[in-house]
Write a structure and sequence with these properties.
The chain has about 400 residues and is α+β, with helices and mostly antiparallel strands. Helix content is about 35%, strand content about 25%. The protein has two domains: about 5-190 and about 305-385, Zn peptidases (Aminopeptidase); about 190-300, Alpha-Beta Plaits (2-Layer Sandwich), CATH 3.30.70. The structure holds zinc ion. Keywords: Hydrolase, Metal-binding, Metalloprotease, Protease, Zinc.
């Protein structure tokens, strides 16, 4: 396998984390990538997802000053006609701004000074992909059609991938470079997530004068909550009520409480069952105190479950072995762009880029993992060519 240029990879990663790109402010990052990808022989298109997203959020005020971008779709024509077109994806946005980031390397680990996030989620994934594109170019490695997709607004709910026109993609399968684990862990399963809101309507009354005329929405919420099992329900199911709001004054019987929560499971029946249990808990609680409630659910993304008999998993495994790693298939409790691509009929796994403690100021990534993520991608490109029956030049 061709060598990964560690210094170039790390330098480019450090250069990219200096570009501040919180969700919906990816303009500078997109411009940087357009330039890099063009020099690496890719044709790059940008879609209108950024503008569409701001419009769906219903507020275009200041849109001219918000430095938003669209998703980037970059294509490089294959040198091996018979090889399947492959998708590689990563997201350009970071969960929050990392303006003023001071990144340094100690003992082979890249981290910040503890004041900002690093941005390895997901710039580590982007760095690995660009390094591979450069290795392919400078060594004239044989490859099939490559589709690199860099999405916007992943961190605010997979919005870029959602708005991307997936029908335009030619890839038969894909690899998303956005998992926290080490590069040998191939994420082949992820839950479906349903978010819900519960509105409890009670009746206001003076707490000291005529409390018996009131119906406490807080009491109803309390009864209901005491019957809801939260946390990890089983190996593939979790429940969380993460927000509760209600009440105004201590001397008013509270007439309105709102709760928001989520259920995730890789098993759709269990998912419906947990939703039904929560609904029943609040129905009984409201009946007990004479309150009324409404519950609304919304599917945020749908899950996927791939196995070792799926081609995309086999290719990831073969690529990992070529890179000298021992691959493992694992599930992950979170959603990612991988969910969206799978739902659109493009089987995809999520690959580890080694970023840890992402979404915190302790976020870090090891140089070794960055290098291995690049080797894994190289291994995948090579595997796809081999599977097409072509000779790989080593
Ligand atoms: Zn991410």
């Amino acid at each position: 396998m061709a060598d990964v240029n560690e210094k170039r990879l790390v330098d480019r990663f450090l250069q990219m984390v200096q570009i501040d790109s919180p969700s919906s402010h990816e303009r500078e990052m997109a411009d940087y990538l357009k330039k890099e990808l063009a020099s690496l022989g890719f044709e790059v298109a940008e879609d209108d997802a950024g503008r569409d997203l701001l419009q769906t959020l219903g507020d275009m005020r200041g849109a001219e000053t918000i430095r938003f971008a669209g998703n980037l779709i970059a294509r490089k024509k294959g040198t091996v006609q018979e090889a399947s077109p492959v998708l590689f994806a990563a997201h350009m946005d970071t969960v929050v701004s990392n303006k003023g980031v001071k990144a340094s390397i100690q003992d082979g680990v890249i981290r910040t000074d503890g004041r900002t996030i690093l941005g390895a989620d997901d710039k580590a994934g982007i760095a690995a992909l660009l390094e591979v594109a450069q290795i392919i170019q400078e060594n004239r490695l044989p490859h099939g059609d490559l589709e690199f997709v860099f999405t916007i607004a992943e961190e605010t709910g997979l919005n870029g991938a959602r708005l991307l026109d997936k029908k335009n993609l030619r890839a038969k399968f894909g690899f998303v470079m956005d998992s926290g684990g080490p590069p040998n862990v191939v994420i082949g399963a992820s839950p479906t997530e349903i978010d819900f809101s519960i509105k409890i309507y009670g009746k206001a009354a003076h707490s000291g004068v005529n409390p018996e005329d009131g119906v406490s929405a807080i009491a109803a919420a309390g009864h209901g909550l005491s019957k809801v099992q939260m946390g990890r329900i089983d190996e593939e199911t979790t429940v969380n009520i993460g927000v509760i709001k209600g009440g105004e004054k201590t001397n008013i019987v509270c007439d309105y409480v709102e709760l928001w929560g989520e259920v995730r499971s890789r098993n759709k029946e269990k998912l419906s069952w947990e939703i039904a249990k929560i609904q029943t808990a609040f129905a009984m609680a409201c009946e007990k105190v004479g309150a009324r409630f409404e519950m609304e659910e919304q599917q945020i993304y749908s899950g996927f479950q791939l196995t070792e008999s799926d081609e995309v998993v086999q290719i990831a495994f073969e690529g990992a072995r070529k890179a000298g790693m021992n691959p493992q298939l694992a599930p992950r409790g979170g959603g990612s762009d991988t969910n969206i691509f799978n739902a659109a009929g493009i089987p995809c796994v999520n690959l580890g880029v080694g970023a840890s403690k992402d979404h915190t100021v302790e976020e870090s990534v090891s140089v070794k993992d960055l290098v291995q993520a690049s080797q894994l991608v190289l291994g995948i490109v090579e595997t796809v060519v081999e599977r097409a029956g072509a000779e790989v030049h080593r």
